[in-house]
Amino acid sequence: MSSRFPVMEIFGPTIQGEGMVIGQKTMFVRTAGCDYQCAWCDSAFTWDGTGKEDIRMLTAEEIAAELREIGGTTHVTISGGNPALLPHLNELIDRLHEQGITVALETQGSLWKNWFLQIDELTLSPKPPSSGMTTDWSQLDAIVAQLTEHERAFSLKVVVFDEADLQYAVTVHERYKQVPFYLQAGNDDVIQEDTSVLLNRLIERYKWLVDMVIASSALTNVRVLPQLHAWLWGNKRGK
Ligand SMILES: C[S@@+](CC[C@H](N)C(=O)[O-])C[C@H]1O[C@@H](n2cnc3c(N)ncnc32)[C@H](O)[C@@H]1O
Ligand SMILES: Nc1nc2[nH]cc(C(=O)O)c2c(=O)[nH]1
Ligand code: SF4
Ligand SMILES: [Mg+2]
Predict the structure, then answer these.
(1) pTM score
(2) CB count, 10 Å around CB of 178?
(3) Structure confidence at residue 1 as a pLDDT band (50, 70, 90)
(4) In whole numbers, what is the pLDDT of the chain averaged over residues?
(5) Cα atoms found within 13 Å of the Cα of residue 28, Cβ hemisphere only
(6) Which positions bind Mg(2+) (predicted)?
(7) Which of 50, 42, 45, 55 lies closest to 8 in space, CA to CA?
(8) Whose CA is nearest to atom 1 of ligand 3?
(9) Could you count the other beta carbons within 10 Å of the beta carbon of residue 187?
(10) What is the best residue among 159, 187, 198, 228 to mutate for testing ligand 1's pocket, by most ligand atoms within 8 Å of CB?
């Protein structure tokens, strides 16, 4: 029997605005539900109840058919919420692979699923102190070890808002030195509707982070990025 997945939104084509494949033309499939409640989550509608009317329970084939109909890209990014809550997501990954689609996925590294090994570009985004969440280091160690052992393409991406977050980023980078490491400037105004006001703020936050990384002797082989989609489209959903 085909599993059904809680789909919050399917959108694109757009560009991947973050991390290891920034700039990649892609479709997004955003699942509902998260085991975290980050203080600054820009997708809180996936877990705080405000988006519940939009959730559709879809099979892998129904999702794949929608993506086929929209067309325009051979790359799909699965995000959430935390898609790692879904035990049978391999059904969707398999379906997309059968259609010749490259599959990327975003998760925070709190939960493991065996289907992680089928993802073409996996981003683990453990959460710094400003999120209010606590990292389960043994879980993250195990996930990184599995992915490394199976020679999977994956990266770590830490969002940074302040100096305590930066210190956390150092801890993550030093713990997993061999894993491609990205620092991402935090958006501290996720309700701002004026895109030019937001853009000024985001540029300021990005500059601050770049300066901090330049000055850091501990953050060596790292990449510093903004959320490019927020620069282009602000806090608009589905972009
Ligand atoms: C919305 S989350 C969904 C996937 C997964 N739950 C996770 O956190 O990795 C996607 C990415 O957006 C980042 N993010 C969420 N809110 C943000 C904000 N206010 N500023 C910058 N990045 C943010 C997360 O850290 C994560 O890397
Ligand atoms: N364009 C675009 N790039 C993204 N990269 C990660 C996103 C996410 O919310 O997971 C995201 C998103 O929502 N939009
Ligand atoms: S883990 Fe991701 S989706 Fe969940 S609350 Fe944090 S940023 Fe939002
Ligand atoms: Mg987002």
Answers:
(1) 0.98
(2) 8
(3) confident
(4) 98
(5) 21
(6) 43
(7) 55
(8) 36
(9) 20
(10) 159
Check if 110 has its Cβ closer than 6 Å to any atom of ligand 1.
no
Q: What is the pLDDT of residues 26-57, one digit of tens each?
A: 999 999 999 999 999 999 999 999 999 999 99
- Domain-by-domain residue ranges, the chain? 4-233
What tokens were used for 186?
């935090």
The CATH number of the domain covering residues in 4-233: 3.20.20.70
Strand partners, 6: 57
**Contact status, residue 123 vs residue 158, Cβ threshold 8 Å:** no
Examine the pLDDT at 223 and tell me if it is beyond 90.
Answer: yes
User: Which H, E and C letters describe the chain, residue by residue?
Assistant: CCCEEEEEEEEEEEECCCHHHCCCEEEEEEECCCCCCCCCCCCHHHCCCCCHHHCEEEEHHHHHHHHHHHCCCCEEEEECCCHHHCCCCHHHHHHHHHCCCEEEEEECCCCCCHHHHHCCEEEECCCCHHHCCCCCHHHHHHHHHHHHHCCCCEEEEEEECCHHHHHHHHHHHHHCCCCCEEEEECCCCCCCCCHHHHHHHHHHHHHHHHHHHHHCCCCCCEEEECCHHHHHHCCCCCC
Cα–Cα distance between 137 and 231 in angstroms, integer? 32
Mean pLDDT score, 9-33: 98
